[in-house]
């Protein structure tokens, strides 16, 4: 599978050197090494210096979006189907300094608070057999897009303008559907569900959606004559309005919630779109906590279908956890626009290897083995035990120890010299 994933985009490299480096890069992301920066990946690949890996992310000639397209096609050919779900969410990486593309003090769910961070918006794809990430966008705040000198220093193309996270998500969904990605549904959290423009874009594509909205979200009732908070609607529901259903299998069994479905409400400004608008409310069976979803389908749907899509939204959280914990999605040490997209694309390739292997193993294993399904974490462990052999040559390890210490000594002298020169200036 590693060879198949690497082979699907091998033709995007005009020279053998970057093609070989890309294969070693993805293999290194799968390897059992502590940190996955260019230095560590080069050492894992047996290089004497990190130059080839750094050149791959910075100067080498290849199109990361074209590689993304090839990966997307491979993934959707494995997991694709008419009821597949496109899942949108964003994730942040904590950063120091101000030069990394897109970094500023902003809220990130990674920390659960405002921190100096870089945020990326991602598109996940969930089919019957498996799920993984298929696209990515780096979020550029207004503080960046209004400072063209700063953008130029980070390599941001001149045509890139400010776009909200829902707009970036809409771009990825539009590109996926235009490329023929089979999907019948979309889902996202309330940061995207609260956007009327994002919802309208999905209806234009005639793709059904189950989008989380905030408890203070206003929905139109009575043909749009009145607008009511969704939590007020939930407070007036009788006990008979709730049905207990599973949102999918969890690690401890079915994820059971109580659901209330208000059909033919929440009609937006275009009531003649030919679809069916509804409001879905989820209640935690233990705590009573409520969650709310704006829903639309181009044709009649059942409660079971909407509940399934609402439950699939958590697959992107699982994908983020696997991408960061298993293939180092958040361990890049790059500052520039192209380098971020290149590193992230290769990380998605490594994640695809794990996701497809886990899905294929589920098909191949007998149904009654007494074992849980093979997870992406276990696939990576087995990959390292059986395929990726660590280099244990003592001379190679000592060479890299000396190289790191020598490089760090030069950097330290440069920093000290710069600091002293600044202090000596009148």
UniProtKB/TrEMBL annotation:
The name this protein goes by in its record: SRSO17 transposase
Coiled coil: none
Membrane-spanning ranges: none
Organism in which the protein naturally occurs: Micromonospora inyonensis
InterPro entries to which the protein is assigned, alphabetical: IS701-like, IS701-like_DDE_dom, RNaseH-like_sf
Residue ranges annotated for the Transposase IS701-like DDE domain, each copy included: 8-219
């Amino acid at each position: 599978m590693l060879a198949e994933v690497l082979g699907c985009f091998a033709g995007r490299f005009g020279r053998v050197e970057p093609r070989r480096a890309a294969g070693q890069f993805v293999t290194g992301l799968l390897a059992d090494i502590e940190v996955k920066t260019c230095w560590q990946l080069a050492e894992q690949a047996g290089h004497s210096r990190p130059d080839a890996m750094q050149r791959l992310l910075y100067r080498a000639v290849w199109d990361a979006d074209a590689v993304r397209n090839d990966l997307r096609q491979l993934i959707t050919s494995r997991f694709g189907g008419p009821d597949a779900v496109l899942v949108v969410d964003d994730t942040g990486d904590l950063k120091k300094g101000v030069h990394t593309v897109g970094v500023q003090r902003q809220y990130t769910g990674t920390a659960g608070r405002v921190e100096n961070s870089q945020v990326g918006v991602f598109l996940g794809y969930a089919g019957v057999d498996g799920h993984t990430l298929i696209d990515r966008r780096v979020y550029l705040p207004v503080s960046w897009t209004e400072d063209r000198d700063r953008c130029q220093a980070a390599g941001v193309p001149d045509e890139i303008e400010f776009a909200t996270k829902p707009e970036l998500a809409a771009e990825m969904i539009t590109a996926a559907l235009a490329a023929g990605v089979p999907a019948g549904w979309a889902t996202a959290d309330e940061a995207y569900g609260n956007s009327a423009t994002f919802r309208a874009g999905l209806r234009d594509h005639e793709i059904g959606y189950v989008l989380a909205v905030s408890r203070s979200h206003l929905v139109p009732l009575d043909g749009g004559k009145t607008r009511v908070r969704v939590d007020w609607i939930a407070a007036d529901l009788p006990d008979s309005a709730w049905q207990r259903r599973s949102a999918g299998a969890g690690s401890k069994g079915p994820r059971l919630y109580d659901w209330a479905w208000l059909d033919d409400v929440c009609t937006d400004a275009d009531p003649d779109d030919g679809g069916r608008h509804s409001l879905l409310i989820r209640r935690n069976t233990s705590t009573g906590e409520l969650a709310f979803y704006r829903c639309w389908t181009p044709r009649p749907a059942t409660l079971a279908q909407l509940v399934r899509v609402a439950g699939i939204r958590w697959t992107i959280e699982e994908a983020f956890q696997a991408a960061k914990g298993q293939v180092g999605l958040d361990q890049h040490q790059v500052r520039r626009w192209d380098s971020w997209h290149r590193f992230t694309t290769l990380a998605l390739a490594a994640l695809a290897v794990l996701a497809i292997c886990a899905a294929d193993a589920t098909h191949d294993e007998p149904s009654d083995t007494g074992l849980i399904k093979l997870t992406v974490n276990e696939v990576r462990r087995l990959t390292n035990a059986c395929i990726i052999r660590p280099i244990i040559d003592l001379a190679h390890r000592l060479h890299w120890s000396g190289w790191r210490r020598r490089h760090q000594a030069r950097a330290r002298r440069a920093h000290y010299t710069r600091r002293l020169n600044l202090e000596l200036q009148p």
